[in-house]
Amino acid sequence: MRRFLCWPVLMAWILWGALGTAQAASPKTVLVLGDSLSAAHNIPVASGWVQLLGARLAKMEPAWAVVNASISGETSLSGRHRLPELLDKTQPAILVVELGANDGLRGLPLGALRENLAAMIDAAQQRKVRVLLIGIELPVNYGPQYRDGLRAVYADLARNKHTGLVPFLLDGVALRPELMQEDGLHPVASAQPQVLDNVWKGLQPLLR
Description:
It is a single chain. It is built from seven helices and five strands; from the N terminus they run H-E-H-E-H-E-H-H-E-H-E-H. A five-stranded parallel sheet has the order 2-1-3-4-5, with helices on both faces. It is globular. By secondary structure, the chain is of the alpha/beta class.
Protein backbone atom coordinates (compact mmCIF):
# COMPACT_ATOMS: atom_id res chain seq x y z
CA MET A 1 0.00 0.00 0.00
CA ARG A 2 1.38 3.41 -0.97
CA ARG A 3 1.78 5.72 1.98
CA PHE A 4 1.44 9.48 1.83
CA LEU A 5 2.76 12.09 4.21
CA CYS A 6 0.25 14.65 5.32
CA TRP A 7 0.97 18.14 3.99
CA PRO A 8 1.91 19.82 7.33
CA VAL A 9 4.42 17.08 8.14
CA LEU A 10 5.91 17.22 4.66
CA MET A 11 6.32 21.00 4.87
CA ALA A 12 7.89 20.72 8.32
CA TRP A 13 10.47 18.29 6.98
CA ILE A 14 11.26 20.57 4.05
CA LEU A 15 11.63 23.63 6.28
CA TRP A 16 13.77 21.73 8.78
CA GLY A 17 16.05 20.54 6.00
CA ALA A 18 16.33 24.04 4.57
CA LEU A 19 17.14 25.45 8.00
CA GLY A 20 19.82 22.83 8.55
CA THR A 21 21.36 23.57 5.17
CA ALA A 22 21.39 27.32 5.87
CA GLN A 23 23.03 26.78 9.24
CA ALA A 24 25.65 24.50 7.72
CA ALA A 25 26.36 27.03 4.99
CA SER A 26 26.63 29.99 7.36
CA PRO A 27 28.82 29.15 10.36
CA LYS A 28 29.28 31.72 13.08
CA THR A 29 32.28 33.95 12.58
CA VAL A 30 35.24 34.97 14.72
CA LEU A 31 36.72 38.28 13.55
CA VAL A 32 40.38 38.84 14.46
CA LEU A 33 41.56 42.45 14.42
CA GLY A 34 45.26 42.61 15.13
CA ASP A 35 48.71 43.69 14.02
CA SER A 36 51.74 41.80 12.70
CA LEU A 37 51.57 39.34 15.60
CA SER A 38 48.31 38.08 14.11
CA ALA A 39 49.21 38.66 10.45
CA ALA A 40 51.82 35.89 10.20
CA HIS A 41 54.73 38.33 9.94
CA ASN A 42 57.71 36.86 8.10
CA ILE A 43 56.39 33.27 8.31
CA PRO A 44 54.17 31.23 5.97
CA VAL A 45 50.59 32.46 6.23
CA ALA A 46 49.34 28.92 6.87
CA SER A 47 51.60 28.71 9.94
CA GLY A 48 50.15 31.74 11.71
CA TRP A 49 48.11 31.28 14.86
CA VAL A 50 44.98 32.76 13.29
CA GLN A 51 45.14 30.26 10.45
CA LEU A 52 45.68 27.46 12.95
CA LEU A 53 42.67 28.74 14.86
CA GLY A 54 40.57 28.61 11.70
CA ALA A 55 41.55 24.99 11.13
CA ARG A 56 40.65 24.08 14.73
CA LEU A 57 37.30 25.85 14.65
CA ALA A 58 36.38 24.30 11.30
CA LYS A 59 36.43 20.88 12.97
CA MET A 60 33.95 21.86 15.68
CA GLU A 61 30.28 20.96 15.64
CA PRO A 62 28.84 23.31 14.60
CA ALA A 63 31.82 24.71 12.72
CA TRP A 64 33.01 28.28 13.08
CA ALA A 65 34.63 30.50 10.46
CA VAL A 66 37.52 32.91 11.06
CA VAL A 67 38.09 36.23 9.32
CA ASN A 68 41.59 37.62 9.82
CA ALA A 69 41.53 41.40 9.40
CA SER A 70 44.99 41.87 10.94
CA ILE A 71 47.49 44.23 9.30
CA SER A 72 51.17 44.65 10.10
CA GLY A 73 51.77 48.03 11.69
CA GLU A 74 48.19 48.43 12.86
CA THR A 75 47.68 50.72 15.85
CA SER A 76 44.67 50.94 18.11
CA LEU A 77 43.56 54.12 16.37
CA SER A 78 43.67 52.69 12.86
CA GLY A 79 41.95 49.53 14.09
CA ARG A 80 39.26 51.65 15.69
CA HIS A 81 38.65 53.42 12.38
CA ARG A 82 38.43 50.15 10.42
CA LEU A 83 36.29 48.20 12.85
CA PRO A 84 32.75 49.50 12.12
CA GLU A 85 32.94 48.52 8.46
CA LEU A 86 34.42 45.14 9.37
CA LEU A 87 31.60 44.46 11.82
CA ASP A 88 28.99 45.37 9.23
CA LYS A 89 30.64 43.24 6.56
CA THR A 90 31.45 40.09 8.53
CA GLN A 91 28.64 40.08 11.13
CA PRO A 92 30.81 38.20 13.66
CA ALA A 93 29.62 36.49 16.81
CA ILE A 94 33.01 37.08 18.47
CA LEU A 95 35.59 39.84 18.03
CA VAL A 96 39.22 39.18 19.00
CA VAL A 97 41.15 42.44 19.51
CA GLU A 98 44.94 42.05 19.46
CA LEU A 99 46.14 45.63 19.30
CA GLY A 100 48.38 47.89 21.35
CA ALA A 101 51.87 46.57 20.65
CA ASN A 102 52.60 49.24 18.06
CA ASP A 103 51.13 51.93 20.32
CA GLY A 104 53.43 50.79 23.09
CA LEU A 105 56.55 50.46 20.94
CA ARG A 106 56.04 54.05 19.82
CA GLY A 107 55.54 55.20 23.39
CA LEU A 108 52.09 56.59 22.67
CA PRO A 109 50.00 57.78 25.65
CA LEU A 110 48.28 54.88 27.37
CA GLY A 111 45.15 56.99 27.82
CA ALA A 112 44.72 57.09 24.05
CA LEU A 113 45.18 53.32 23.83
CA ARG A 114 42.57 52.81 26.53
CA GLU A 115 40.12 55.11 24.74
CA ASN A 116 40.57 53.37 21.39
CA LEU A 117 40.22 49.87 22.81
CA ALA A 118 37.15 50.92 24.80
CA ALA A 119 35.55 52.35 21.67
CA MET A 120 36.14 49.09 19.80
CA ILE A 121 34.67 47.05 22.62
CA ASP A 122 31.63 49.31 22.77
CA ALA A 123 31.10 49.13 19.01
CA ALA A 124 31.13 45.34 19.14
CA GLN A 125 28.97 44.96 22.24
CA GLN A 126 26.35 47.32 20.83
CA ARG A 127 25.95 44.73 18.06
CA LYS A 128 25.73 41.88 20.61
CA VAL A 129 29.22 40.67 19.63
CA ARG A 130 31.28 38.99 22.34
CA VAL A 131 34.80 40.37 22.74
CA LEU A 132 38.14 38.80 23.58
CA LEU A 133 40.85 41.30 24.47
CA ILE A 134 44.44 40.17 23.98
CA GLY A 135 47.18 41.91 25.90
CA ILE A 136 50.82 42.37 25.03
CA GLU A 137 54.03 43.00 26.95
CA LEU A 138 56.86 45.41 26.08
CA PRO A 139 60.63 44.92 26.43
CA VAL A 140 62.07 45.82 29.83
CA ASN A 141 63.83 48.92 28.47
CA TYR A 142 60.45 50.69 28.35
CA GLY A 143 60.53 50.92 32.12
CA PRO A 144 58.27 49.46 34.81
CA GLN A 145 55.84 52.38 34.97
CA TYR A 146 54.90 52.25 31.30
CA ARG A 147 54.90 48.43 31.18
CA ASP A 148 52.72 48.16 34.30
CA GLY A 149 50.39 50.80 32.90
CA LEU A 150 50.03 48.86 29.67
CA ARG A 151 49.08 45.69 31.54
CA ALA A 152 46.53 47.66 33.54
CA VAL A 153 44.85 48.97 30.39
CA TYR A 154 43.88 45.47 29.27
CA ALA A 155 43.02 44.16 32.72
CA ASP A 156 40.86 47.16 33.65
CA LEU A 157 38.98 47.18 30.35
CA ALA A 158 38.29 43.45 30.50
CA ARG A 159 36.97 43.75 34.04
CA ASN A 160 34.91 46.90 33.55
CA LYS A 161 33.45 45.96 30.17
CA HIS A 162 33.03 42.25 30.88
CA THR A 163 35.13 40.91 28.02
CA GLY A 164 37.31 37.84 27.76
CA LEU A 165 41.01 38.44 28.38
CA VAL A 166 44.32 36.90 27.39
CA PRO A 167 46.80 38.85 29.53
CA PHE A 168 49.82 38.19 27.31
CA LEU A 169 49.66 36.81 23.79
CA LEU A 170 53.26 35.57 23.82
CA ASP A 171 53.24 33.98 27.26
CA GLY A 172 55.77 31.12 27.30
CA VAL A 173 57.21 32.28 23.98
CA ALA A 174 58.68 35.79 24.26
CA LEU A 175 61.47 34.87 26.68
CA ARG A 176 62.64 31.86 24.67
CA PRO A 177 65.06 33.09 21.96
CA GLU A 178 64.65 29.90 19.91
CA LEU A 179 60.95 30.70 19.51
CA MET A 180 61.45 34.29 18.42
CA GLN A 181 62.57 35.82 15.15
CA GLU A 182 65.78 37.83 14.97
CA ASP A 183 63.90 41.07 15.67
CA GLY A 184 62.99 39.74 19.11
CA LEU A 185 59.37 40.82 18.63
CA HIS A 186 57.69 38.19 16.45
CA PRO A 187 57.42 34.43 17.06
CA VAL A 188 58.76 31.93 14.56
CA ALA A 189 56.44 29.46 12.82
CA SER A 190 57.15 26.66 15.30
CA ALA A 191 55.94 28.89 18.17
CA GLN A 192 52.53 29.58 16.65
CA PRO A 193 50.79 26.54 18.20
CA GLN A 194 51.79 27.83 21.64
CA VAL A 195 50.46 31.27 20.75
CA LEU A 196 47.19 29.65 19.67
CA ASP A 197 47.00 27.74 22.96
CA ASN A 198 47.33 31.05 24.81
CA VAL A 199 44.48 32.55 22.80
CA TRP A 200 42.35 29.42 23.11
CA LYS A 201 42.23 29.70 26.89
CA GLY A 202 40.39 33.00 26.58
CA LEU A 203 38.41 32.20 23.45
CA GLN A 204 36.97 28.80 24.31
CA PRO A 205 34.49 30.06 26.94
CA LEU A 206 33.10 32.55 24.41
CA LEU A 207 32.36 29.80 21.89
CA ARG A 208 29.80 28.13 24.13
